[in-house]
Amino acid sequence: MSAAVVPSAATVASIRSSRATAGSKSAAEPNGHWVEAAPFRAYLRHLIDSSGLPWQEVAAVARISVPDARRLLTGRHGKTARRISPETARRLFWIDQVKLSRAATARSRQHAA
What we know:
Layout: H1 9-21, E1 35-36, H2 38-51, H3 55-62, H4 66-74, E2 83-84, H5 86-94, H6 97-112
Antiparallel strand pairs: 1-2
């Protein structure tokens, strides 16, 4: 397992700020707001590293789509994602170690059975 990447205080502050200013409109709407992806990418990587779960399972726990998580982590066509929808940002923000621990425990029980 790689060394855990711990988000800096500035990253956490940016995530909280993004959450507060994300707005209620969908990113698909013409006047919808987008959220900067970099802090959420770092947070998603931190969650993956700290939980030991595959990124697909972390995405499932966060209730974000696998394609959205893949795009956030790896980009598309060699370009890193610069923004994400407010809904994806909110869902990532609300995921925590407790939820991931429960998912990891359930996963280990399934493999033991």
